[in-house]
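S., here's the first fold you wanted:
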Amino acid sequence: MKKTLLYLALAAAPLMASALTPVVPVVKHQQAMKSPVVMTGSDDRFSVMPGFINAVPAATPAPALRADVKSMTFALCSSPYTALSFKSQTVGDVVKQCVELDLANAKKFAGNQITAINIANPMNNSGTNPIRNVTVFLTHDLEAEPFYTQDGTLGSKGGEYSTVTLDTPCDIKGDKPIYFGYTITLTQACVSGGVYYVVVDGVPTDNYSAGWLYFKADGKYAWDSAVEYYGGLCITATITGDKLPENEVKMAGLDAPVSTAAGEEFSYVFGVQNEGVNEVSNLELEYTIDGESKTVSVNLPEALAYGETGIYGLSGPVATKTGMNLPMSLRVTKVNGNDNKLASVTSSDYYNCLPAGKGFMRNVVIEEGTGTWCQYCPLGYTLMEYAREAYTDGSLIPIAIHNQDEMAIADYQAVIQAYFSGFPQYIANRDLAFANGFGRSLEQNKAILQSFYTELRSYKSVADVELEAVYTDATKTMAKVTASTQFAMDTDNPFRYVIVLTEDNVGPYRQTNGLVGQDCPGYEQFTRGSQYVNLVFNDVARSISAAGGVQGSVPTGVSAGQTYTYDYNLSLSGVKTENCHVIAMLLNGETGEVENAKMVKLTEGGAGVESAVADGSALTVSGTTGAVVFNGEYTTANIYTTAGALVATAAGESSVALPAGLYLVKADQTVAKVVVK
């Protein structure tokens, strides 16, 4: 199971409101719900513009229509984000770009007309459009001749939308898909001339209807797509008529709380998208938890127009059943008091419900995908450095996962493939509800990270994690890692440990920098720099036990209050151990998410976890059920958690009663690591 990608566009923590009062929108925007994360370098046929499209106005409206005629903009893209050039194209080559009104949408809009095509202008490095003359086209088949063509003129500003109104509107009959787009002949070189002909929204997608390209590769023209790397093409169609869909709102995601407590009201966040021509101001929602369904009426604080997505927060449900990975579903049953024609579209999520008053504080693991080849990765580098400085108590655990550079490790690539759609990008606790790309403002990026951290910390964890990592030999080439955990309730849910080694002060290595000269507040180190900068990298992942966790590292079926330990032999080959941290992540085996985690520095060796004896001392210290036991004479003893908190003292006693857990004991000159069962 995976959570929905609902939070990816948030700039602040979700704002919750009572189910009986107007909700507060977290974000509202066109179509896409993900932040732009352009996968630079993923497709070697293209080059990405070194920068972002800054101010982008809305599409130029079509000519005024009669009052009784309605129109809407059909779009499979979000706002323009950046632009691409073709590495292999030359002056005189032909390029075609188009978007598909697929068969399902053709049936939906049957009886109406396509009256205009809206095009985000190509651009050069100076921000102007080098292509003014285009030929728009409509076709049912990319390999066939278009059934409609018309010359048009684009505006002069790069990245801005221009509208070509069709002299003869195209009837939508609903029996065939319709591809709409335009053809240009290149008048300037691409890469060498700094011209970028393909404007994209930077939101990778597997919906190929969002963009098709016709260009020359290896000396031959062919249709292809790059939406899986760079997102949808910024081309839209104006659809006009008196048979436009009404009262159609579909679910666009649901995020239940990570955890709640039995008998307590909880909050959730959901997204809806208006696919009808009429504005939406009121919704009736039906949610289902614990096998029971309830409805709630919600007045939106701002009406949603066609194509707009609203993300809102509500509270109200009360869970009574405790357990892991409990289901919740949500659907829209009515729109403005009318039956929703898309009521069958349901969003689902899951949550953990703990016994009242139980649970542990949750730490937050930030895994960042990055690479020295990636021109926008200085955005992520800067945020990760901020996180190191801002969170020093171990509650935020940073891990930089490098891809296709000198610091990349093969065993971590499975995480990149499973969770990252581009670079730079990060994910908190391997929960897709807390994944994000990067904007141009450091303060905005800080706010999103802080909101993720704050919200995740607010959810109690079913498990606590303690950790120690001790050198096992004088050469410091191996370490014994011991992770221990307790659970707040009995559960048969599977859990697995992931052990990660990170290293600081790695490099310097040359980092590609695409922020030069860009408007990126807070990133002046890079905006005022050069195309390449030498950086020293921190939190670099050097090894991982198993990307998806070690099978059998936690027993199947655990009991509340009992301590479970896992030992792992960690190789320290090839790293500077004084710069290293060891991280233990406890994964939920059903969801793959991080239930809790702990990070520690490597320490000097002892005689083991169960007991330890100092050289020349007759005193031994060991752990037993419910107590630390001293066998021999000593004057004073201090007992600490592995996090360094003093929990007990002793002055010659033979034993000290303690809760189950892993402890560090210092008795006179004897230092011992013990497990109390």
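And the second, which I think is the more interesting of the pair:
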Amino acid sequence: MMNIRTLALLAMATTTLAVTELPAQEQHRSPTLEEYTLGSPKALRRTSLRSLRWLGSDYVYIDSTRLMIGTPTAAHPEKTLLSQDEFLAIIGEATKGAGAKYFTPFSVVDEGLLIPFGKKHYLIDPQTKKQLAAFERAGRTEQAFALAPRAKHAVAVRDNNLFLLLPDGSSKQLTTDGTPTLVYGQSVHQNEFGINGGLFWSPDGSRLAFYRMDQSMVTPYPLVHINTRKATEEKLYYPMAGMPSHHVTLGVYDLASGKTVYIKTGEPKEKYLTNISWAPDSKTVYIAEVNREQNHMDLKAYDPATGDYIKTLFSEHNDKYIEPQWPLYFIPGRPNEFVWQTRRDGFTHLYHYNTEGKLLGQITQGAWEVTDFLGFADGGKTLVFASTQLSPIDRAISTISLDGKKMKLLTQQSGWHVGQLSLDGKHLLDRFESLHIPTENRLLSTTSGKLTSTLYKSKDPEAGYLNPEITFGTIKAADGTTDLHYRLLKPTNFDPTKKYPTVIYVYNGPHAQLVQNRFQAGCLGWDLYMATQGYIIFTVDGRGSAHRGAAFEQVIHRQLGKHEMADQMEGVKFLKSLPYVDADRMGVAGWSYGGFMTTNLMLTYPEVFKVGVAGGAVTDWARYEIMYGERYMDRPQDNPDGYQASNLSLRAKDLRGRLLLIHGTIDPVVVWQHTQLFVEACVKAGTYPDYMIYPEHRHNVLGVDRVHLNYTMARYFFDHLK
């Protein structure tokens, strides 16, 4: 299940669609709402090299129906590696009709391609154009699939059970007792702690580790589907804060013996088994175990042959909360040494450990955060990573020696860099963008730090249109010392002598950052559209948001909404200082945690915010899930004052302005009950919110229906904040 963080990031994501050419006669208009909206068939989006990634020391990407390959050191590097017709011929499928528009989606496995197509997963050697293996595929009923190293076998999850798949097409069922309440091989703990799957092959492919989650003690929550003659129920096993949580264990299946053992993680059963890692020799499995209170972590080693506990390498503790999110990165050529990514000194950094648990040294340090470890270069002597080193709103990529003494910035240009490291560690694929630069696909040398070539530059899909001006800046937080980053969108054809209605778009929750030095500042299409309609749109990442260190984020602990609102009001103070902001026409909007913030601001500062739109809003943290909720609020029974203060239904009487609540009816992240209870409380209190539901939508409104959502939000401000 997607968590609140995942959906927040999804809402901010961009895609790569074809650029719509603007007719000459229309070059002085602003884009329409449909053109701004992700999911609309008319959406204007940047182009990029499709599915660009490494295949060994070469890079590949999709060009229409061809898979192209390039060599970093070649003068004219690119050629066709495999066409869609060639792939179909390899697997014995005839070309159907006019064929596909694009080469079939794929993943890289060692030196081969794993391609799900029809009823099978195909393993293809693109160089020899031969099929290496084919594994049965269960289509939509297949809940997970993982290919073993060296590709001799695979595992799939169907109907919550595990199946071992062999290259000859046969299969062996490994578990038989899987049910909706006893789940094998899937994500656990609500996808928190960096968990995004439940299958873990050992490096030699001889053993499979897998999650086993018992949800029988969790009261099911009903999601009601209406697109049947009689509505049908989907049971969601959703543990709410303070209530019983599911029990997770880690099983290990041994292919040679055909037996399964379970790792003896012991009591208590209500704890979090995170960041599963295998030793390079496949003889040890490591688990970062977090207590339910989420203030203590033990990194433990276990014997996968017996399930026995071996030792605890080290522990980490934080009085507020701890949140390991990354596995062990073993250093090439040093099977007993690894890199550990942690926030133990207050900022997320890289540390050098051995398997005895001895700290050999801190590698990176400073008042900035490592956001992504990309891999090793120079045989393990050098590390490659992304960070906020230049600015919290930038992403830079650097190299550093294992001893931390030599660090080199690879990406010199300010902006947002997303890197992929080649298998040999010599080259980096850099996907770059910044406020005024659409996507550029670049090739860098990790040894020289120089730009090897620019593989592709996206055209600006909105070139020739009238677009709002976007600026970055900083203000002080409510503590008077901390810098907060903001983005400000001015209306199209801005006139500094006029006063404009202003909307604050807010999130301000953990693990999300809205202000980013990306193309159009990371704005959603709705933000841009509203600016073309004569509104100032303002966003500030207050304390509690991501990538600013522990002290910045943890100030919200046990009192969600308090410091976040204080920082948003500093944003209001800044806006009121601008001569073109109409302080009497100010609104607020947000989704998920931003929906909670929007509603809270409307209730707390009715004299400031006249109009609000809150989507998928948390209104009572006692009804949110355990992993996220208890991390930031502790249990309701341990923090009754904090839960009461943030329960918005208890303050329904304080609603004065116009508030539109929006919710998907089958939301599995913030269940629909939140806004229903708030509406019920308003009815009893004699206050009058407005309400919009999106049937059969989950925690956001995606796809073509997003145009409807964006117009619904826009129209509400048009009607009430003119």
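Why I say that: The first helix runs from residue 4 to 12. The chain has four domains: 4-44+461-720, 49-137, 139-325, 328-458.

Talk tomorrow,
H.
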